[in-house]
């Protein structure tokens, strides 16, 4: 009898442990994503595509860049409705956690002056962004609203994810730059390195499945599909 109780209790504990790990990864990843975006802002050497738009809108409206990120994320999430996309816990959490973490980091980090400080900041921001991407995607609680927009457009139009991503991000960067967002070496560095970095960290943070104990990473190349919140 004692053996049966132990056997029954084992999988339940293991399942709870996996769920706990996944939740920690999700929220740690989202918080670190916001922090990494803030480091890119502080460096002033160019932002990731959606960051350019957020900064441009912040300049236009006078709102903080974190609040703008939340508003844009919520607006993009509404676009999921005609695309028949279903959000997950990670999708909804993404909208709020990234923006709040971004504003908190910007308030805590002093202004950067001189390339000797700004270059390490942009490098740290890109690498941290890759780690954050691996954390929250490997948690498997759903894509970010912006990634879901691209995959939804792919399903509805039949065009490749790469084409949809390129079209959306070009439009986002051009609009953000016109509004005062920053494009620079950081933007280029992010574009060429985030895919390989995300792939590495997806494997590092892969969570074992409940059924067979094997680890799970996102299928395909992350550069072509889910990369950012």
What does this structure look like?
There is one protein chain. The chain is globular and about 50 Å long. Helix content is 73%, strand content 2%. The chain has helices spanning 2-43, 49-61, 65-78, 80-83, 89-108, 115-138, 145-157, 161-178, 185-204; strands at 207-208, 215-216. Mean pLDDT is 86; it is low at 1-11 and 212-229. The longest helix has 42 residues, at 2-43. It has nine helices and two strands. It is an all-alpha fold and 229 residues long. β1 (207-208) and β2 (215-216) form a beta hairpin. This is Integral membrane protein. The chain crosses the membrane at residues 23-41, 61-81, 88-109, 121-142, 163-192.
How much helix is in the residues?
over 70%
In terms of structural class, how would the helical and strand content be classed?
Answer: mainly alpha
Sequence stretches where pLDDT stays below 50 over 5 or more residues? 1-11, 212-229
- Total beta-strand segments: 2
Summed up, the helix count is 9
Beta-strand proportion: under 5%
Protein name: Integral membrane protein
Organism: Streptomyces pseudovenezuelae
Transmembrane segments: 23-41, 61-81, 88-109, 121-142, 163-192
InterPro entries: YczE/YyaS-like
Provide the descriptors you would attach to this structure in a database record.
229 residues; mainly alpha; two-stranded antiparallel ribbon; 9 helices; 2 strands; globular; disordered N terminus; transmembrane; membrane; transmembrane helix
Short description:
By secondary structure, this protein is mainly alpha-helical.
């Amino acid at each position: 009898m004692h053996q049966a109780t132990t056997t029954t209790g084992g999988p339940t504990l293991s399942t709870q442990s996996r769920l706990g790990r996944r939740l920690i990864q999700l929220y740690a990843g989202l918080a670190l994503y916001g922090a990494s975006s803030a480091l890119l802002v502080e460096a002033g050497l160019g932002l990731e595509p959606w960051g350019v738009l957020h900064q441009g809108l912040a300049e236009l409206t006078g709102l903080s860049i974190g609040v703008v990120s939340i508003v844009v994320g919520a607006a993009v999430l509404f676009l999921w409705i005609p695309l028949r996309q279903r959000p997950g816990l990670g999708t909804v959490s993404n909208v709020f956690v990234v923006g709040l973490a971004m504003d908190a980091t910007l308030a805590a980090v002093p202004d950067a002056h001189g390339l000797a400080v700004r270059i390490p900041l942009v490098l740290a921001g890109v690498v941290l962004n890759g780690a954050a991407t691996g954390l929250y995607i490997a948690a498997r609680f759903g894509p970010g609203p912006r990634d879901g927009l691209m995959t939804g457009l792919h399903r509805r139009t039949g065009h490749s994810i790469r084409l949809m991503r390129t079209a959306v991000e070009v439009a986002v960067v051009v609009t953000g730059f016109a509004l005062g967002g920053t494009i620079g070496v950081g933007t280029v560095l992010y574009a060429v390195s985030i895919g390989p970095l995300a792939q590495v960290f997806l494997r590092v943070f892969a969570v074992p499945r409940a059924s067979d104990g094997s680890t799970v990473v996102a299928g395909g190349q992350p550069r072509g599909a889910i990369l950012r919140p």
